[in-house]
Amino acid sequence: MSAEQISPETKLSPAAVRKACADNPKMRERDLARSLGISELELVSSFCGHGVRRIEPRFDDLFPGLHDVGEVMALTRNESAVHEKVGLFEKFVNGRRAALMLGEQIDTRMFPANWVHGVAVEKTDGKDVRRSLQFFDAHGDAVQKIHARPGTDKIAWDRLVETLLIDDGSLDRLPEVTPASPFSRKMPSADVVDTLRSRWQGMTDVHQFHGILKELDLDRLSAFELAGDAWAWPLDRSSVTAMLRLAASEDIPIMCFVGNRGCIQIHSGPIATILEKGPWINVMDPTFHLHLRTDRIHDVWLVRKPSDTGHVTSVEAYDSDGQQIIQFYGVRGEGNAERSDWRDLAENLPKIDRGVTLGAAE
Questions:
Q1: Domains and CATH numbers, the chain
Q2: pLDDT tens per residue across span 126-149
Q3: Which of 56, 57, 102, 239 has a 20 to 30 Å separation from 247 between CA atoms?
């Protein structure tokens, strides 16, 4: 059975999904699920009883357990970017609305309400068994995947899976998911400009920005467009690739944020190996891989936010719907001023004249 032979309106059984996977072995699970008209969660869950078991994403058990398994690879992605970090789950800080994982390599911000489903996956690959824990939101989209590595403690891994197991007897049906509402930008009111600029100029910490957007009911791109040239300006879409290449060649450490509804994953440090393949720009370093679809970048902005140590500069890329794909900062220690080499790099990236339609420049 090929993916093209299945109507998206057809309610598929787990057996039918497994057959579609067998008939399309080279397709990525995410792409095959889309072609079948189901979520990635539904596709993976069709293998329950066939190397897949349901687990509950209980943070109080999950992250202390991951601390014990040793080295893993953590993967967080959205539609246009994939962020992979190899390292340890170190310091976990729980919270009702947001939780943190703080570590030298694996550094994340998690939003527990969007960690709804979980599965433990074992796939046989020749003589090897590939193990992963995969977590999904209510819409069936992956929020984070954690893959075992050769150095992972397999006994601790199995113990963690047993702790999280759910026996709900649902091997013969796919999990229920709810369609996600499409992302849409908010139209700013005409009288918000002066308030936004005043509040923006008065920031003493970059983390205050989210609160300002919420209070003024603004999306990020609208705020950038209204802030004025002192605080934000549009860049050419080639700027992200140029920035990555310059940061690598000049050994400028960066922070790279990729997120979705449930998780934001961060790399902090230098990057070295930059490779282009088709529409993808890739960072391929020992503990950090980034895969970014440059053809999905519609708008790029240089953004400056005041802090108590001087302003902080970010480079941010957005898709055609106005949804953030990826965000970059220069690495800086707590309480330290921004690195001048990062600021110089970012502020000299090619600008777009505001008279040009954003996202249309070639």
A1: 3-45 (no CATH), 193-347 (3.40.1570.10)
A2: 888 999 999 999 999 999 999 999
A3: 102
